[in-house]
Prior knowledge:
Four copies of one chain form a homotetramer. In chain A, 43% of the residues lie in helices and 15% in strands. By secondary structure, chain A is of the alpha/beta class. Chains in contact: A-B, A-D, B-C, C-D.
Amino acid sequence: xxxxxxxxxxxxxxxxxxxxxxxxxxxxxxxxxxxxxxxxxxxxxxxxxxxxxxxxxxxxxxxxxxxxxxxxxxxxxxxxxxxxxxxxxxxxxxxxxxxxxxxxxxxxxxxxxxxxxxxxxxxxxxxxxxxxxxxxxxxxxxxxxxxxxxxxxxxxxxxxxxxxxxxxxxxxxxxxxxxxxxxxxxxxxxxxxxxxxxxxxxxxxxxxxxxxxxxxxxxxxxxxxxxxxxxxxxxxxxxxxxxxxxxxxxxxxxxxxxxxxxxxxxxxxxxxxxxxxxxxxxxxxxxxxxxxxxxxxxxxxxxxxxxxxxxxxxxxxxxxxx
Amino acid sequence: xxxxxxxxxxxxxxxxxxxxxxxxxxxxxxxxxxxxxxxxxxxxxxxxxxxxxxxxxxxxxxxxxxxxxxxxxxxxxxxxxxxxxxxxxxxxxxxxxxxxxxxxxxxxxxxxxxxxxxxxxxxxxxxxxxxxxxxxxxxxxxxxxxxxxxxxxxxxxxxxxxxxxxxxxxxxxxxxxxxxxxxxxxxxxxxxxxxxxxxxxxxxxxxxxxxxxxxxxxxxxxxxxxxxxxxxxxxxxxxxxxxxxxxxxxxxxxxxxxxxxxxxxxxxxxxxxxxxxxxxxxxxxxxxxxxxxxxxxxxxxxxxxxxxxxxxxxxxxxxxxx
Amino acid sequence: xxxxxxxxxxxxxxxxxxxxxxxxxxxxxxxxxxxxxxxxxxxxxxxxxxxxxxxxxxxxxxxxxxxxxxxxxxxxxxxxxxxxxxxxxxxxxxxxxxxxxxxxxxxxxxxxxxxxxxxxxxxxxxxxxxxxxxxxxxxxxxxxxxxxxxxxxxxxxxxxxxxxxxxxxxxxxxxxxxxxxxxxxxxxxxxxxxxxxxxxxxxxxxxxxxxxxxxxxxxxxxxxxxxxxxxxxxxxxxxxxxxxxxxxxxxxxxxxxxxxxxxxxxxxxxxxxxxxxxxxxxxxxxxxxxxxxxxxxxxxxxxxxxxxxxxxxxxxxxxxxx
Amino acid sequence: xxxxxxxxxxxxxxxxxxxxxxxxxxxxxxxxxxxxxxxxxxxxxxxxxxxxxxxxxxxxxxxxxxxxxxxxxxxxxxxxxxxxxxxxxxxxxxxxxxxxxxxxxxxxxxxxxxxxxxxxxxxxxxxxxxxxxxxxxxxxxxxxxxxxxxxxxxxxxxxxxxxxxxxxxxxxxxxxxxxxxxxxxxxxxxxxxxxxxxxxxxxxxxxxxxxxxxxxxxxxxxxxxxxxxxxxxxxxxxxxxxxxxxxxxxxxxxxxxxxxxxxxxxxxxxxxxxxxxxxxxxxxxxxxxxxxxxxxxxxxxxxxxxxxxxxxxxxxxxxxxx
Lengths: 322, 322, 322, 322
């Protein structure tokens, strides 16, 4: 396993990391979480991603129990604050919710600090200045070590950097966008000016486009798949036009390449992301230890992705942002 | 109930909120406070206003007991510091009194932090810079989330904003002025430049002009009314010339409009304030659960205040600041 | 008793205050300290001055015991850091000694914070920038509310203000110089530009020039006087040329004025200082309750110091700094 | 013993100090550490140098036990953070490792704060801005009093100073370079512009070039010498070309000078460093109390190093950086 800086930040994250979204507290109980994390850790994963919203906090509670077995310094633990409940102040990244949110997350995680804290979404009802001040507060009070955003626009990030620079506050270190073979605009185009200028790091999610890039929907959606279970996921995919026959056709063609390389389609899809030097880590959403093991092997597949193979993939995808 | 941002700040307050001034610890005992707050909460009120000066701290102690039944994140609790006792350093917003004041308020409220802390008045004996530094300290130490002022002038607020900007300190978020049909100068004229420029929010008090706008003094001051009980209130009203026969005449004419809309005079008076987009929340001073319920219904009356009705009211009031 | 701002700072100090130098732990034991402070407090004194160096910390321990009887908010307690022991790092106002010094002082005083902390002297071995950063740290950590200096030059203070302004640090609020009828240069000339420009406040010590201005040395030094007991005091007076026959002659002439006003010489000397608007408080060093009472009456004598009387005094003193 | 400022910083360190590298936890057990430190302390040494890396933390644990016998204010204790373990985030001076490192070091040392914290090496994988922000955090949270670097280049230090100045952060106070008769470039040339401009202090290590300057390798490497025990040391010396016959020849000639002055070769080597006004303290690595005593006497030898003797030494060394 390779460990990358988070953008220019000094902290190191494994190039493949384990997310808890949809799995911890949904598909996985206490024992399942422990086993999946243990497998991930033993295969070199050090970054475990979480959020207050995942399973309404249960995901953090389960991770909190599981990480007691580890040396704190060996782990990079994150949370994301935005959806903390149903009250008027449980939503967004106001100073009130950021602070109340992180205080509650740390209790569930049974930690003194997380390594990474994210604004889980942009919040049009809170000035970015308030958020940057609050994040600086959170770090200076030792509740988190680095802060970042998720699904923010380049413009919003620019504003955050400008304010941090003007006010001598700690700037963001990372963004968590969706990124995979079918969703490329933000990472490959919109964010381009930010990598060099600010050293922005990326912790990307949904590497398999909710399973689409495993090839398992090539012949329709199986009954016990995650897509069948979480209606919202499917709605999202359809809304974004990802579940098109054109895309499924592409997956079929990509599967052949994977096969030629002795890899699964999922491994190829992850390895393809690993080739992007702006990606610090790819968050996988494995629900079983075996899945972790399979996904981690993508790091080996990466070495097989020569320039020629990458070109062949590009030709199939035919969606490079201009 | 609608929840508004506090000016541009990310925190959300119910458009009607419950104050404890003159009621908690005076007209209301422990049980009365609990019932009134419960009724308010159940009707959507999330902001409960307080001050160290109210009933000499007893108002905070009573609220402190009452809020134990709630989830902290669901509440927006304020206090105001200025009158903390009889000693030379118990008055004003020096660093000494602001810190000693908030430490004591938090003990009475049994809280780790309030959401909002106000300078209860301008303090000509303390440089505004000292106050802004101290408020920044209070927020950075987690004793409060947002700070503001009460009954400050636009000029004083401008100075506070300028210092905060220069020193990279956290700026004020809100002002608490008196505002009602008969007291309009500050909110509608003096503060106008501040709303856009700094995103100043307003938590207005005395919506009924100490009862005058309920119509209950139309035929003289009843014996057990708040005005009869608190001599200072009546003195204030008289000093400001509010208890004039001209004003009582206006109330009589406004009462007819209220009646036509199927509303009480108090509801009309509150609804009229709610129409002002610069007002984040109207603090009511209910002393009984039924009063809370009556006042909250002003949110419905607001929808009936068409442009025509507003014009009719303006014609009666005939006091629009130019 | 009048309460003055400390320069422009918002904190209020009684115009006469009680010092512990040479008395607490030397002339006064636990009971004596308690009685003297009680008398002072009952006559309106709220500021009690101390230093880590006084009686090697015993003065702070005694005051710490005595102030348990009071409401903390009613007191203004100071300490001064500079001479903390015999080790290489016990001297001066380095960050190391300032922090270790205040931590130890607070333990002896049994307090969470002092109101005022002074650099007891300038420290040529420590950059003023380090001292200003450390003082800002001390205030932002809640260990003290205001900071100042003692016996610094105007140039050193200017540098401190400049650094605080540049770095957005909390500036000094007060200086503690010697000031009396015979020592006038610093307060009346050197510091003049600082009062207006920075709002510097003064807590002056040695109002009676170590007893010289009581008139009790008019006929030589009595055996049980403080001057006889503390050899250093006498050396200082002689070094500064204060114990001259010329000065004693002046005291004799001033005593007549005092007598004409129905005041003691000491009261006249203190009242004369109170007339200076730049002096926030005059620290007296009473060793008996009766002395406190006598000194406090200087506030009444002050009202008798008409322009004519002041001119008469000036003519006798004949030492106005130009 | 003379006590020097650490560059311009106000803290005072004995001109000779005791390091724990290679000795504490290796050659010295609990009792040995206590005795060596006691001897050092009794001979005027107040600065005891340590690092998380020394004996994998055992050196800190041993020092932590030994210093319980002393008054905290009498000691200057350091640690250095860089090598904290084997995990991806245990290396370097990222915010994560600096904070986790100092938290762990303080536990082992059983202290609330160290006096000095060093970045044990430059870390090309962490932006210097992140390190400066983290060091400022560490000092403002009371975990250390001063921060510095070890084996950084002048260019890296310049960048740290520039960032601290721009962001109003606490700048570094000291560097810990290797410095002795055979390793002079950094201290005598590269750092020259920094002493005046920033007041950089030096705590130099390896005064005897790993024993070479004791003369004990003049006839080959004895079996139980430190060089024989720690292979890395010998490798380093050889890599740097220090163990050359030319150098051994120089040591032989220098030994004669030492002899003429009634000093040992080691004393001469240390005294020669003490003559450099930019050196705040020379860290010795004594493994026995007698060695401490011998080394400390270098302070007396220093007085014998007249201009003539220094010239004679320079002629022998013939390695002055130009």
